[in-house]
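Give me structure tokens for this 187-residue protein.
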Amino acid sequence: MQNVRLHPADPFAPSGGAGSPHASGGSGDGPRGGSNRLNLLLSYAGWDDDPWVDRLPRLLDPMGVRSLCAADAGEASRVIDANPIHIAVVDLALPLAPGRSSEEAGPRILEILARLTAPPPTLVIKRGKTSRDDHREMAAALRAGAFAVLDRPRQHRDVETLLELLRRVLHRYYANRWPTPEGPPPT
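Here you go.
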């Protein structure tokens, strides 16, 4: 993952020193039951044999994070309708429907999330096309309110970057506390 673009309003610089919430685990001892869990939408377009989307839930579940995975726009829409989404990771290459990989629905999912009563903070995974497309996608996602736009996670350190971004979202939007079932507080 070569570049990560944060929303311009993000006041937090990379951290990890001995006194940081990330180094000590912050307040990651959140509630573990049903509706008091943090709901994380993970959309994934299926472009890797060993996907990060399979590893992330195993890492986050012990901390009380409920990962809700979607492999296409229909699944993502059903997940959004059935659950409060507290944080979303949206792959821009997400297919519209199974077997229809030429029709990408990631931007449509971003629109659906933005129209929610309590829109969740969003991390956007770029498609990895040309540099011009990358720039255009980053600019559009940040204008739409994405917290960060990042390259496709391919290596172990890329997953660590994604985890750090999730920690920063939790810090900024939820003051290092698990969100209420209604979603993030108004900013």
